[in-house]
Design brief:
This protein is mostly helical and 91 residues long. The chain has helices spanning 2-44, 46-54, 59-89.
Length: 91
């Protein structure tokens, strides 16, 4: 009985393992891309950040500004992703 049950669960376990592996890979790729987009945004605004710092802005204000912009990009991506996912799940 145990052998029969083990044989029927092999396919499900393999599918779950592959799904978890691909989900982890997708998460790593997404994290890498988000850090790349944030680095690009900061590099494009280096002069502006330098001028703001020279005029008296604190480094924590600049960090907040960069994080706010990064979170807006993430929020927009999440919104679009959730909307697309919801539209496919009702189809």
């Amino acid at each position: 009985m145990r052998n029969c049950r083990g044989d029927t669960l092999v396919q499900s376990r393999l599918t779950a393992l592959l799904l978890a592996l691909f989900a982890g890979l997708a998460l790593a790729i997404a994290a890498t891309e988000l850090s790349g987009v944030t680095a690009l945004m900061v590099s494009q605004r280096t002069r502006e950040i330098g001028i703001r710092m020279a005029l008296g802005a604190q480094s924590n204000e600049m960090l907040r500004m960069v994080l706010r912009q990064g979170m807006s990009v993430i929020g927009a991506g999440l919104g679009v992703g959730i909307a697309v996912c919801a539209s496919f799940s009702h189809a």
